[in-house]
TrEMBL record:
<keyword id="KW-0732">Signal</keyword>
<protein>
    <submittedName>
        <fullName>TIGR04219 family outer membrane beta-barrel protein</fullName>
    </submittedName>
</protein>
<feature type="signal peptide">
    <location>
        <begin position="1"/>
        <end position="21"/>
    </location>
</feature>
<dbReference type="InterPro" id="IPR026387">
    <property type="entry name" value="OMP_w_GlyGly"/>
</dbReference>
Length: 245
């Protein structure tokens, strides 16, 4: 009797391990994002408009992610994403303003760069996994950028390189038997006088392990610190390829 019980236990354990191994999954995606820039920056008494003063318009950026899901209930899944988010322009000023203690005057040609490139490290749990998929967790967004202005004999910059913790929600809705799906993803935080909101929605078509996605992404950052301020909105449509295995 004991031998039978032992054999059944071994069989059950083997079946459990095999089942868990079957639900280990990985996914990856690559996107091209048509970015429209708007907003202002400030380091001193004057607010500097990104469109009127710096000549910003549209730019194209890239974003990549990889995610790994495993069957261990107590441990979170992991997702890493990198987004290129920078723009550079040269523009002739039509007014005077002060930035980082230097006065930029009308008719100066200012070379500027705004870089909000970031890497996301996300730990999340899968709450639903059927025709509706829902993940919730925590993202740490690591900025490694700056706002830099330069003209003849003058140059100043605001560093944007702080890690920011954000709430993470990722949902997908499959239309059964069609390969079509809708998705929505959000990373958000608001604290004191600052906030970061990054939201995207998309429609996709999946054939086999490959999916094609078309969507819209809106990124808002509102940061204030010791007289320095950056209020920037970047939004636009994206197209991507996703692999889910």
């Amino acid at each position: 009797m004991q031998k039978r019980l032992l054999a059944l236990a071994i069989l059950a354990a083997s079946t459990s391990v095999s089942t868990q191994a079957d639900i280990v999954g990985a996914s990856a995606g690559a996107y091209m994002w048509k970015q429209s820039w708007d907003g202002h920056v400030k380091s001193g008494p004057d607010s500097i408009d990104m469109n009127d003063d710096l000549g910003y318009d549209d730019e194209t950026g890239k974003s990549f992610y990889v995610a790994l899901e495993h069957p261990v209930p107590v441990l979170p899944n992991i997702r890493l994403q990198r987004t290129d988010l920078d723009i550079s322009e040269s523009n002739q000023l039509s007014r005077n303003f002060t930035f980082e203690g230097d006065v930029y005057t009308a008719a100066d040609t200012v070379n500027s760069t705004t870089d909000l490139t970031h890497t996301d490290a996300t730990l999340y749990y899968e709450i639903l996994d059927n025709w509706v998929n829902l993940d919730v967790g925590l993202t740490v967004r690591m900025f490694d950028g700056e706002v830099r202005l330069a003209t003849t004999g003058r140059e100043g910059s605001i560093e944007l390189d702080a890690p920011v913790p954000m709430a993470y929600v990722n949902a997908r809705f499959d239309l059964p038997l069609t390969g079509l799906y809708a998705s929505a993803l959000a990373n958000v935080i608001s604290y004191s006088d600052s906030s970061v909101t990054d939201m995207s929605v998309g429609l996709g078509y999946e054939f086999g392990v490959v999916g094609l996605e078309l969507g819209y992404r809106n990124f808002d950052v509102d940061l204030e610190d010791d007289g320095e301020e950056a209020k920037v909105t970047v939004d636009g449509y994206f197209f991507g390829v996703v692999i889910d295995i």
